C-alpha cells in the first residue's frame, strides 16, 4: 500500500465511500481452457488496466483529486474504492468507464500473440460502515442472478435488509403480535373513474413502529422459512376486511408460492372456510419463471372452484409473455410498469396497443400499473385499458384510511 493510500485510509476512514466490485465471468472456464498460468496472466493484465488507464479516466471524469484504492480481493474479483460520496449519475458514468474499457480490451495469453476478450459483472454500493463491501457483494450477486452487467445498492436504503439478527427479531415479533398488516392500493375502473378493487401489499413494523417495505424483508423471510407465517396472517386479515367492508382485493403470490404445498393449503383452506372467494383475485408474480403449466393450472382450477379470479402480474416484461395468456386460465393481466412509464413513446404505445387488442380478443381484462400522473392516465384510457393503478389513483394505505376516503367520496 502506497504512502498516499495509507494517508487516505486513515484520514478519510469515516467519510462516505463508493465501492465497485468487478468480477470476471467464467474465470474457471478460462483456467480450464488455457491453464492457470494464462489465467494468472490475464488477471495481472486486468489489474494493470484498472490501476492505470481506468483509474486515470475516472480521475479525468471527476475533474478533481480523489483517493482511489484498487485491490484484487479474490482470485477473479477486484474492488475499486473511491473515498467520495458520488451522485447516482456519476456512479453510472464511472461504471461505464470501467465496463467499456474492460470489455473492449484484448488480453494476451502468456508467451503468445493470441489474445482473448473477457466479460465482467459489476456490483456497487456507497456508505460509511464496514458492511459496505457486503452491500456491494449483494448487488454483484443480484446482477449475476438477473443476467445483467451492473447493479447498485444504496446502503442507506438496504441497511435493514442485511442486519440479520435485528431483522429476524422483527419478523418473529410481527408474527407473534400479528402486526403483519395489508396496505391497500386502489384500482380504478377507467370507464366510470370509480375505485372498484384494491391490491393488498404486505407491511411490517419495526420496534419503533416504523413501516418496513417489502424489499427489506421478503427475501430474508423466505430464507428464514417465515414467509408462510407472515402470508397466513396477511390472508386472514384480508379476509376479515373483505367480510367487514365487502371490498374486492388482489393478493400477490410468487410462482414459487404456487408450487409450495403448505402455502397452497393456507390459501385454499382459508378461502374455502371464509366463503369470500368471489371478492378475491390472486395475482401471479414472476410469471416469466413458470415452467410447469400443469401445476399452475391445477392450483388455478382449485381457486376458481371458489370463484377466485386470476391475474398475471408484470405482463409484457421481456416482451415474451403471450404464451402465458394461452396456457394460463387468467381473468386479468397487469401490464408491466416499465411499459406504462414509456406509454407516450410511439414504440411502447404500439406495443401496448397490440397487447390490449390480443387480450380483448381473449376476453381478458387489463390493468395498467404505475399510473403516476394525469398524462399517463389519458394515454391508458385512449387504449381502452380497463383499469388503472398507481400513485395518481392512490397510494397504498391502511384499511381505516381507505374506508375514510371512501366515505368522503
TrEMBL record:
Residues 15-153 form the GGDEF domain. CDD domains: EAL (cd01948). GO terms for molecular function: cyclic-guanylate-specific phosphodiesterase activity. It comes from Halarcobacter anaerophilus. This is GGDEF domain-containing protein. It comes from the Bacteria. Pfam families: EAL. Residues 164-409 form the EAL domain. SMART domains: EAL. PANTHER family: CYCLIC DI-GMP PHOSPHODIESTERASE PDED-RELATED, CYCLIC DI-GMP PHOSPHODIESTERASE PDEF.
Amino acid at each position: 500500500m502506497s504512502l498516499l493510500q495509507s494517508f487516505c485510509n486513515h484520514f478519510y476512514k469515516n467519510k462516505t465511500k463508493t465501492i465497485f466490485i468487478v468480477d470476471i465471468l467464467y474465470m474457471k472456464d478460462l483456467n480450464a481452457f488455457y491453464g492457470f498460468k494464462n489465467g494468472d496472466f490475464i488477471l495481472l493484465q486486468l489489474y494493470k488496466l484498472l490501476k492505470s488507464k481506468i483509474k486515470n479516466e475516472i480521475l479525468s471524469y471527476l475533474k478533481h483529486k480523489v483517493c482511489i484504492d484498487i485491490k484484487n480481493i479474490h482470485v477473479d474479483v477486484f474492488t475499486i474504492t473511491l473515498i467520495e460520496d458520488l451522485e447516482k449519475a456519476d456512479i453510472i458514468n464511472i461504471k461505464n468507464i470501467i465496463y467499456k474499457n474492460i470489455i473492449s480490451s484484448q488480453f494476451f495469453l502468456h508467451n503468445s500473440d493470441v489474445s482473448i476478450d473477457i466479460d465482467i459483472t459489476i456490483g456497487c454500493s456507497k456508505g460509511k460502515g464496514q458492511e459496505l463491501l457486503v452491500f456491494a457483494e449483494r448487488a454483484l450477486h443480484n446482477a449475476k442472478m438477473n443476467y445483467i452487467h451492473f447493479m447498485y445498492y444504496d446502503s442507506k436504503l438496504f441497511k435493514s435488509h442485511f442486519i440479520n439478527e435485528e431483522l429476524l427479531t422483527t419478523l418473529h415479533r410481527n408474527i407473534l403480535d400479528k402486526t403483519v398488516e395489508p396496505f391497500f392500493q386502489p384500482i380504478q375502473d377507467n370507464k366510470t373513474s370509480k375505485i372498484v378493487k384494491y391490491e393488498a401489499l404486505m407491511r411490517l413494523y419495526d420496534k419503533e413502529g416504523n413501516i418496513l417495505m417489502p424489499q427489506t424483508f421478503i427475501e430474508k423471510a423466505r430464507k428464514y422459512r417465515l414467509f408462510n407465517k407472515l402470508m397466513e396472517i396477511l390472508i386472514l386479515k384480508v379476509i376479515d376486511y373483505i367480510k367487514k367492508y365487502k371490498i374486492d382485493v388482489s393478493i400477490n403470490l410468487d410462482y414459487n408460492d404456487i408450487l409450495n404445498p403448505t402455502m397452497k393449503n393456507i390459501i385454499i383452506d382459508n378461502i374455502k372456510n371464509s366463503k369470500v372467494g368471489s371478492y378475491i383475485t390472486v395475482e401471479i408474480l414472476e410469471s416469466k419463471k413458470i415452467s410447469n403449466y400443469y401445476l399452475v393450472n391445477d392450483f388455478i382450477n382449485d381457486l376458481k372452484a371458489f370463484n377466485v379470479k386470476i391475474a398475471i402480474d408484470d405482463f409484457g416484461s421481456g416482451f415474451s409473455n403471450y404464451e402465458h395468456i394461452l396456457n394460463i386460465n387468467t381473468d386479468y393481466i397487469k401490464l408491466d410498469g416499465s411499459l406504462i412509464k414509456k406509454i407516450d413513446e410511439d414504440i411502447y404505445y404500439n406495443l401496448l396497443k397490440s397487447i390490449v387488442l390480443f387480450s380483448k380478443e381473449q376476453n381478458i381484462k387489463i390493468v395498467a400499473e404505475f399510473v403516476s400522473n394525469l398524462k399517463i392516465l389519458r394515454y391508458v384510457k385512449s387504449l381502452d385499458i380497463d383499469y388503472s393503478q398507481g400513485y395518481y389513483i392512490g397510494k397504498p394505505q391502511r384499511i381505516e384510511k381507505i374506508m375514510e376516503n371512501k366515505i368522503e367520496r
